């Protein structure tokens, strides 16, 4: 049985993160009902594919290679923040509080998914620390089992270099009530408590 273009469109849209078959159908129907927007989207997708580049230094995406962050001489080149993916980099940038450089891993270590250090952007972290005289590495992987495992792996990898290593603070968000905090977060907050 041959799949028509509408079915292929729905199937492709449903592969996007956070979208299932029902959402994909609604999006596809919305685009079909507004053909001008569909043509505009198609053009933007083609343009993005042609323009986007992966930074050879940090693995961020940008229209230039190296990316604007790596080329910004106002950033602190002695501090390197290791993130799982580009969305994490964008989240940190949105906070406008971090002024160092980045290293995007492209995921986390996972035996179940077959993600090894060789399949991620891990192996060249040592070179970056050495060549660029990095003084501190901030491990900003997520607080998931895979994120924690990846963070520990990177810390072990960099340990012989004697570089300062830190991790993002974890614990109770401001404004939260203890009764609504999950056990893992509460336990971590107690473990990482500091002087008042």
Describe the structure.
With 196 residues, this protein is an alpha/beta fold. The protein is built from eight helices and six strands; from the N terminus they run H-H-H-E-E-H-E-H-E-H-E-H-E-H. It has helices at residues 5-14, 21-33, 35-51, 68-71, 86-95, 125-131, 145-158, 183-191; strands at 53-54, 61-62, 76-83, 100-104, 136-139, 164-167. It is globular, with a radius of gyration of 21 Å. The model has no long low-confidence stretch (mean pLDDT 90).
Tally of discrete structural domains: 2
- The first-level CATH class of the largest domain is given as Alpha Beta
- Rounded to the nearest angstrom, the distance between the terminal CA atoms is 68 Å
Alpha plus pi helix count: 8
Which sheet architecture does the biggest sheet show? 4 strands, parallel
Name given to the CATH architecture of the largest domain:
3-Layer(aba) Sandwich
Following the backbone from N to C, one meets helices and strands in this order, namely HHHEEHEHEHEHEH
Low-confidence stretches: none
Structural class: alpha/beta
